[in-house]
Amino acid sequence: MLSSGQLELKDIGSARSPHVEERNGSLDPDLSDDVKAGFTVNDQRDMQRMGKKQELRRNFRMASTIGFTTCVMGTWEILLTSNTPGLTAGGRPALFWSLVWAYCGQFFIVLSMAEMSSMAPTAGGQYHWVSEFAPRAYQKFLSYASGWLSTISWQSIVALDAYLAGTIVQGLISLNDDGYTPARWQGTLLVFAAAIGMSLFNIFGAKHLPLAEGIFVTCHFFAFIPVIVTLLVLAPKAKAEDVFTGFTDYGSGWPSVSWTVMVGQVSCMFVVLGSDSVAHMSEEIENASVIVPKSMIWAFLLNIPFAFGLLLTYLFCMPDVQSALDSPTGFPFIHVFREAVNNTAGATILVVIVLVLIVMITISSLASASRQTFAFARDNGLPFSNWLGEVNPRLHIPVNSIIVTCLFSMAMSLINIGSTVAFNAMLSLSTTALMATYLISIGCIIARRISCNPPLPPSRWTLGRFGMPVNILAMVYASWSFFWSFWPNAYDVNAENFNWASVLFVGLMGISTIVFFGGGSSYTYYRKPDTINEPASELEGYLELEEETLRHIEGKVYVVGAKEYRLNRLVGESMNVSYNQRRAVFWATRASDSLEAIIKFFIEQHPILATVDIRRRIFRRLGRTAIEAEIKALEAGEDVKGLPHILERCSDVQGPEFEYPAIATPRREWPISENTNVIQQLGREIWWIYGQSRDT
C-alpha cells in the first residue's frame, strides 16, 4: 500500500531506465523446481506481460547462448559447403562481393531483431513481435502469416543442414572409392539417418545442450585453423584479379554478368542468416531480455572474420572453378581439399572435420526450429496444435515438435530422389520465408514508431535514436533479398533447374491461409481491442494496484534530495497494459519557493522504488499551442490523458544535455541531488519530474 506520509526516492544508478528497472520479488510458487532454476523475476515479468506460462527449463547463460547462436549460424562451415550456386553464377568474385553486401545488409536486420527480442523475449520470435507491433486491424492475420513463414523457414534450414550432413558422407565415399557411383536414393537415406540421429540427441541430451554448445563453439573456432593453414600452405594460388574481378558464368546462361551475380547471391544471403535462432530459445535463457539481443549481435560479429578468412582462402586456393563444380563428390570444397593436399587420406581428414561441424550446426538448428514450432503451436497456429504444443513433463522440452521437425527434414530430402534441385529448393525456400518474416516484423515496428499509438513496449536493450534509420535500412535489404530468392539458377528454365522454392512457398502459404480461415479463430496470441486495456496479472506477493486510487495522497509531500514538493492535485491517472504500468500525473508546488512542477509517477504493477529524472526539455514540432492547452488543462484540474502521450513521443522531445527517457531512446540520468536546471516554459518556470513511488 502506498504510504500516507512522505514519498521518498533514492538513486538506483544511471544505467537503468525508469521504465524497466531490475526487480526483486518472488517467483510463481506453482513453478516446478526444475523450471524455477535460472528463472529471474525479470523473466517472469516478461512472460506474464506476454501472457505465457514458463514451461521450459532456463539453463542457458551468456556464454552458452552466444555459443549456440554462433553454431546455428555456422557461417564459415555453411559457406564452405553450400557455395555451388554462387560459384556457378559469376565465379569467385560473385561469391566474394555477394558476401560483402549480404553482411552489410543483414547487420541492420540483426540490430532490428535484437531490439525486438528485448521488448518481447519469447520463443515465438517474429510472429509474436508482429502481434505486439502490428496495427490492430491486421494484427491477427499478419501475426499468423509470420508464424507460418517462420515455421517454414526454420524447418527448411534444418532440412538443408541435415541434407548437407547426409550428402557429405556420400561425398566422402566417392572421394575414397573411385568406382562408387553416387545414387540419389542413397543420399536420401543418409539424410534420414542424420535427421533421426540429431533428433535423438535433442530429445535425450537436451539437459546437456548448453554444455554441448560450449563444445560446439570451441570446435567451430579451433577447427578453422587446420583447414585454413592446410590450404594456405599446400594449395596453389589463384591471381587476385581472378578472385576480385574475374566474373565468369559457369553454366547459368544469363545474358549479362550483372543478372548472373544477382541470381547467384542467394548462397551468401543464406550464409548470414540464423541470428534469430536465439530468439526462439528465449524461454530457456536466463535474463533473456538482455542476453538474447547481446547474443544475436556478438554471434553475428564473431562470425564475420571467420567467414571472410575462409572465403578468401578458399577462392585463392581453388585451382579451377569448373573442375571444382564438376567434382564427382558433388561438393567443390572436397575437390579443393583433394587438390591442395594431393592425397586422399589428408583430404578425408579435412572433410571429416567439416562434417562433424555440420552435424553440430544441425543439432543447434533443430533445437531452435523445434522451439519455434512449439511456440506457434502453443498459440494454436498449426494443425494438431494441442499435440505439437505439448512439453514433456520429465524432460521439459517439446518432444513432439522435435519429432515433427525430423519428419519434415526427411520429407524434404525425398525431393532428392526424383530431382537434383533439392538443395537449391531448400536453400531458396528458407531464405525467402525468413526474409518475409523480417519484412513483416520490421515493417510493423516502423509503423508503430511512426504512430506511437500506443508507444513501443519497454526494452532493456535499445537502438535509441537510431531505431528508425536502422529499421528502414533493414527493410530495404530484406526486400532486396526476398525478391532475388525466387529466381531460377539458369536462364533456360526446365524441370531440373527450376527454382521450386516459389512453388513450395506459394503452396505452403496457401495451406496456411486455408487453415486460418478454416480454424484461425482458435489462434490465441491476439489481443482483441476490447481487452487491450484490461489490467495485467500481478507478480506473486505484490499489491493489486488496479484496485488502488492515488487520489488519497493529494496534499502529501514528495521528497527529492533536500527539496520537498507538495502534491496539490491528481490531474491524470491511467493504466497501460503495453507497459504493464499505472501512470499518475500530479500538479505540485515546491515548498521552499512555491515553484510549480508537474510530477509524473510510473508505477509498474507494484509500488517499488525506482528513479526520478530531472532534466531540461525542448519541445519540438508539437508547437506552443499544444503544450499551452495541456498546461491550461492542468491548471483547471482536468483529466489530462493527452499529456502523457505528448511527453512520450520520443521523436518530438529532446533535451540539449539529456535525451528523453522514452522507450528505445538512450538517456543519461542526473543523480538525485540539489538541481537548479529550471527552464522557462511558456513564460513560467516548470520542472518536469519523472519518478516512481514505493511503500515507505
TrEMBL record:
One MF term in the entry's GO annotations: transmembrane transporter activity
Residue ranges of the TM segments: 59-79, 94-114, 141-165, 185-203, 215-236, 256-275, 296-316, 347-369, 395-415, 421-447, 468-487, 499-518
Major place of residence: membrane
Keyword Nucleotide-binding: no
InterPro entries tied to this protein: AA/rel_permease1 (IPR002293)
Source organism superkingdom: Eukaryota
GO CC entries: membrane
Pfam family, one: AA_permease_2
Name of this protein: Amino acid transporter
Organism: Aspergillus oryzae (Yellow koji mold)
